[in-house]
């Protein structure tokens, strides 16, 4: 069994965030598949000229299909698309497949972001859940497509921030269809300054959702802001121990391995640093299994942070 981890890496020196690929046979030891990103930023004028991130990969027959978050020079974010015969070398589709109106250009993070796509075999369609940011609020929306390229928005706001812990921002939808035909949605809020927290919702049709009353679920424990500031500033070794997840956890990917439910997610550390951690569910409670599964290499294209994990199991 091979695990393929698609993720976003960031180089602080160049200011570029791009999509890469790492592989593993055991979820413990990871090796980068290529020396550089597999989806580098596009040329000037393209929807991904500034950033590629948040990959979602679906294999249909012998074709790998990827939807990802692109950012253009005018500041708008969009859903972009690529195809591959091996999941490593990709042909990028010209232009976005879902984009915000031009009038939203220049507004910070405005647009469509962070796609998660499932192929519905019964209906023969692709279903996409995404984050949609307008000005200071971000909600989860839903779209459908017959070919994965031409999308029709079915409902703009299937999940909106309403709980005190959610603030105004909902990001990173991850949707799983359960064995009984129901759906489960994991999502991340970014509230109270820099804190990232992850919650869960359930649905019978993937459109009408009910939030889990015990939200947020991840991280299992979040240090109080005063303690985080103290550790960030003064505590030396303690800072090094807790810094990787000091500000919470986001972008969850849920899967099963070794007879347990597991989650890959990025942990939010100090100074904007993100690293990918592996969580496992034991006796109904989530706990960290391993932090920072991809080593940070100084000067590498992904040396400052790694985020937005998406796992393909082959």
Could you describe the 3D structure shown?
- It contains two helices and 21 strands.
- By secondary structure, it is mostly beta strands.
- It has a domain at 3-220: Glycosyl hydrolase domain, family 43 (Tachylectin-2, Chain A, 5 Propeller), CATH 2.115.10.20.
- Strands 4, 5, 6, 7 and 8 form a five-stranded antiparallel sheet that branches.
- The longest helix has 9 residues, at 225-233.
- It is globular.
- The mean pLDDT is 89.
Features:
21 strands, globular, 314 residues, mainly beta, 4-stranded antiparallel beta sheet, single chain, Tachylectin-2, Chain A, 5-stranded antiparallel beta sheet, 2 helices
What oligomeric state is this? single chain
The coarse overall form would be globular
Fourth CATH level, the homologous superfamily of the domain at 3-220: Glycosyl hydrolase domain, family 43
What is the gyration radius calculated from CA atoms? 18 Å
CATH topology of the domain at 3-220: Tachylectin-2, Chain A
Query: What number is the mean pLDDT?
Result: 89
User: How many β-strands, per DSSP?
Assistant: 21
Percent of residues in helices comes to: under 10%
Structural class: mainly beta
The CATH architecture term of the domain at 3-220 is 5 Propeller
Q: Determine the number of helices (DSSP H or I, runs of at least 4 residues).
A: 2
CATH class of the domain at 3-220: Mainly Beta
- Terminal CA distance reads 6 Å
Strand content: over 45%
- What kind of sheet is the major sheet? 5 strands, antiparallel
List the helices and strands in order: EEEEEEEEEEEEEEEEHHEEEEE
Outline the low-pLDDT stretches: none
């Amino acid at each position: 069994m091979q695990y393929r981890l698609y993720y976003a890496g960031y180089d602080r020196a160049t200011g570029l965030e791009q999509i890469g690929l790492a592989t593993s046979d055991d979820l413990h030891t990871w090796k980068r598949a290529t020396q550089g990103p597999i989806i580098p930023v596009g040329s000037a004028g393209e929807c991904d000229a500034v950033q590629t991130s948040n990959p979602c990969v679906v294999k249909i027959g012998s074709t790998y299909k990827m939807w990802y978050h692109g950012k253009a020079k005018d500041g708008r974010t969009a859903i972009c698309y690529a195809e591959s015969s091996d999941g490593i070398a990709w042909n990028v589709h010209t232009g976005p497949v879902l984009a915000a109106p031009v009038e939203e250009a220049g507004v910070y993070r405005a647009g469509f972001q962070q796609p998660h796509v499932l192929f519905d075999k019964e209906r023969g369609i692709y279903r996409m859940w995404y984050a949609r940011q307008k000005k200071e609020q971000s909600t989860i929306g839903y779209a459908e497509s017959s070919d994965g390229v031409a999308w029709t928005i079915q409902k703009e706001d299937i999940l909106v921030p309403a709980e005190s812990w959610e603030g105004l921002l909902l990001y990173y939808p991850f949707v799983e269809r359960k064995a009984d035909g129901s759906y489960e949605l994991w999502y991340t809020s970014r509230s109270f300054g820099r804190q990232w927290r992850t919650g869960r919702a359930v649905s019978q049709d993937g459109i009408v959702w009910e939030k889990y009353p015990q939200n947020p679920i991840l991280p299992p424990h979040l240090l109080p802001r005063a303690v985080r500031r103290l550790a960030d500033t003064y505590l030396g070794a303690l800072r090094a121990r807790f810094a990787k997840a000091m500000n919470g956890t986001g972008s969850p990917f849920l899967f099963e391995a070794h007879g347990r439910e597991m989650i890959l997610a990025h942990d939010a550390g100090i100074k904007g640093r993100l690293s990918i951690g592996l969580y496992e569910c034991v006796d109904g409670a989530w706990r960290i299994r391993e932090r920072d599964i991809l080593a940070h290499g100084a000067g590498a294209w992904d040396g400052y942070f790694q985020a937005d994990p998406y796992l393909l199991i082959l």
